[in-house]
Design a protein that fits this description.
By secondary structure, this protein is of the alpha+beta class.
């Protein structure tokens, strides 16, 4: 079981105080690593790993001393043990504990800390899991300084740590989450690290190479190949495709989108290599690194005494739905679903509270048999049957319970891999999928075509993307999977926005112009890349036998485009690069000058609480939409791009939705905001109690006395009058929330 390691250390860490077991003996030398041929495309290369030196007792003592020195582990623990896992990725698991703490540290054979975990008994019994944001007990600048200090301690030799992002994690045990890149010889590598920091030390640490380390010797940071030639090679490998991309505001614009291979240039030889193809040769994948239900037979509204108008209205929405038998009859008429021989297993209904629409979900089951294998081999079936497997096939269909329109289809088989040769050809499967779509979703199918863009040529699923003015819009699609043996539909789903507003398709820049602009927006970087190396299964069978590896990885010095994900393409109308929206989890604004609450707004923004877009608009009247955005961000929910309905649904899940009808543009009063914020918090139940409060405010209604009293107790309000009906500005709301989080 993978352990997420973390440690809670004292301020002694920041001071660097520890009892070093290496003070007299100096640094421990690692055992020599065997040389390894790093020939560029020699896929027959093999690797080996060093054999640990010394007895188990000697090695444990050495590693324990190294870890105590690195992490400044104190001597107050009463129990200690160490476990060694042998193999190519040898690991020490070290455990310290006492009555109030349990510290776990994982290292490699040389004592390098890979991840850390410490549980401490705070003595606090707190089962509340609702809205409870609190500022971390230290500021962001302090967290950055502490993170830099820990990078100095955790990385040594040729390694150093580059901090790429810091974000606040709010709550009773709030902390700062740091992520970064492990540099090798000062150059970026594919190894990532994370650490969590509290005011008194490191709260967690983890390296991405913890469980599959890189092998072989690290090449020196000296490139033999010319950077200019490398840039020419990288540019020559760039490819773009032109299609519509959502603008996030209900529209779609034509954009040239990168689709070419993931290419790097070997800094030793100057050879350009398609890393996706190289990993595929090892059967690997290249990672750039860098609602309630309701039975159909339920009673209707007639004769249902004691129900409110709201309850009756909801119940009435089921009046027009098809019953279970009617649904079954309708579905069995669709031959492409292949329901012959299946039995209906269950049927449920769910009502969308926003639209009132009712969705039915019907599940069918069938047993595999020697004469009905659904495309699997007889040998597979016989072996599974002999082993006592449950050989039930499940097919689930969701549909509009009133109109019968299909929403989705899914099929789950008990066996995994079908034979590669199937009776239906690729052309037959495409034709069967198109015929099904013409029946199941004719209006959408008329506007779609089989998607020929990169990444959509999968064998199992066929994607029919929406087409406008001759260009694909792949974010609107219909997906169908046809069983190659039976010709029936195994999967079906779609995403479609009928109201999507398409941008113009005339006067666009040429593909060459777009490619030039894209290349100009990228920067060639010299750094280390992961590289797959073949394994000699006879000599190093442990790699295959223990982990099933078909290859291992080493680090090679390469030229590559760092930050490819930061440029999502080129705008086809303007010819300008489109920068991907990225965030370190903070909000920074340029309109706070003169705002009396500017410091609090800025502090909230650095903790990830606020509004996207770079504008806070402090004097703007707070609306229900604004209030929900603000409170959701304090609950750790990123609200960027959420439309009103999705915003409300998310707020309702967390108890942060306004009472009554949702009116996103309605102004929010002071008491409205206090009800929202306090009501969802640990103080909510108490605030709703009536007749027990003395608020000290002269203008608060009896029903709101509890919320007013809590507000005074938390320092959110003072004086003789609360002014509960007064509207708030966005800055006023930020001030209230900030004081609540600083309690």
């Amino acid at each position: 079981m993978k352990r997420l390691m973390s440690i809670f250390l004292a301020l002694a860490l920041a001071l660097g105080l520890c009892g070093s077991a290496l003070a007299e003996g100096g640094e421990i030398e690692e055992p020599p690593r065997p040389a390894i041929d790093t020939g560029m495309m020699d896929l027959d290369d093999t690797v080996s790993f060093p054999v640990p030196e010394g007895t188990l007792e000697e090695r444990l003592a050495r590693v324990t001393a190294l870890v105590k020195d690195t992490l400044a582990v104190d001597d107050g623990y009463t129990d200690f043990s160490g476990d060694w896992s042998d193999g190519p990725a040898g690991r020490w698991d070290l455990y310290w504990s006492d009555e109030a703490r349990q510290l776990n540290v994982e290292t490699d054979g040389s004592g390098k800390v890979l991840n850390v975990y410490l549980w401490t008994d705070s003595g606090r019994v707190d089962r509340f899991r609702g809205f409870d944001p609190l500022f971390p007990s230290m500021g962001r600048d302090e967290a950055l300084a502490l993170a830099e200090d820990w990078c100095q301690r955790l990385f040594a030799g040729e390694e150093s740590g580059r901090i790429d992002g810091v974000r606040a994690v709010l709550g009773t045990d709030g902390y700062w989450a740091v992520e970064g890149t492990v540099l090798k010889n000062g150059l970026p590598s594919p190894i990532r690290f994370t650490m969590d920091l509290r005011a008194d030390g490191l709260a967690s640490f983890d390296r991405s190479d913890s469980y599959r380390p890189y092998v072989g010797a690290l090449p020196p940071a000296e490139a033999a190949a010319d950077i200019g030639a490398a840039e020419d090679s990288l540019r020559g490998a760039l490819e773009l495709e032109l299609y519509y991309v959502s603008d996030g505001e209900g529209g779609a614009q034509l954009q040239y989108v990168p689709c070419g291979p993931d290419t790097v240039v070997d800094a030793a030889t100057g050879e350009a290599v398609d890393m996706q193809a190289l990993y595929a040769s090892f059967d690997g994948t290249y990672d750039r690194g860098n609602t309630a239900t309701m039975d159909a037979a339920a009673a209707g509204a007639e004769g249902a005494g004691g129900l409110t108008a709201v309850e009756l209205a909801s119940i009435a929405s089921y009046e027009a739905v098809m019953d279970q038998q009617a649904l079954d009859e309708a579905l069995r008429k669709i031959a492409a679903l292949g329901l012959e021989g299946f039995e209906q297993d269950r049927c449920s209904y769910a009502r969308d509270t926003q639209t009132g629409a009712v969705t039915a979900t019907v599940r069918y089951t069938a047993q595999m048999a020697e004469d009905r294998l659904f495309g699997y081999s007889a040998d597979q079936f016989a072996a599974a049957q002999q082993d006592g497997w449950d050989l039930t096939v499940y097919k689930t269909v969701t549909l509009d319970a009133e109109t019968g329109a299909l929403r989705s289809v899914s099929t789950r088989y008990p066996l995994w891999e079908r034979p590669e040769e199937e009776p239906l050809s690729a052309e037959d499967r495409i034709a069967a999928a198109a015929d099904f779509l013409a029946l199941a979703a004719p209006e959408m199918a008329d506007q779609a075509a089989l998607c020929t863009l990169s990444g959509y040529d999968t064998e199992d699923d066929l994607t029919f993307a929406r087409v406008h003015e001759g260009f694909f819009y792949p974010e609107n699609y219909l997906l169908v999977s046809v069983n190659g043996a039976t010709g029936t539909v195994d999967r079906f789903r779609y995403e479609w926005d009928e109201d999507a507003a398409f941008g113009p398709a005339e006067d666009i820049v040429t593909a060459d112009e777009a490619l030039a602009a894209y290349g100009d927006a990228l920067t060639v970087t010299l750094g280390y890349s992961a590289w797959p190396v073949g394994v000699d299964r006879e000599e190093y069978a442990v790699y295959a036998d223990w982990w099933g590896y078909s290859y291992v990885e080493e680090l090679r010095l390469t030229y590559y485009y760092e930050g490819l994900d930061d440029v999502s393409g080129v705008d086809a109308l303007t010819g300008q690069p489109v920068l991907a929206e990225r965030s370190d989890g903070t909000y920074v604004y340029d309109d706070l000058a003169g705002a009396p609450q500017a410091d609090m707004i800025a502090a909230l923004g650095l903790a990830g609480v606020g509004y996207p877009g770079g504008k806070f608009l402090p004097e703007q009247t707070l609306t229900e939409r604004d209030a929900v955005h603000l409170l959701l961000s304090a609950a750790g929910v990123r609200t960027d791009g959420l439309e009103d309905e999705a915003l409300y649904e998310r707020a309702a899940q967390l108890g942060l939705a306004p009472e009554g009808a949702w009116d996103p543009d309605a102004a929010v009063t002071r008491m409205d905001f206090l009800r929202l914020m306090i009501g969802a918090s640990r103080y909510g139940d108490g605030a709703r109690l009536a007749g027990i409060w003395e608020t000290g405010f002269s203008d608060v209604d009896a029903i709101d006395e509890g919320f007013a009293a809590v507000a005074r107790a938390l320092g959110l309000a003072e004086g003789d009058a609360l002014h509960p009906a007064g509207t708030l500005t966005r800055a006023d709301a930020a001030a209230l929330l900030g004081r609540f989080m600083d309690r």
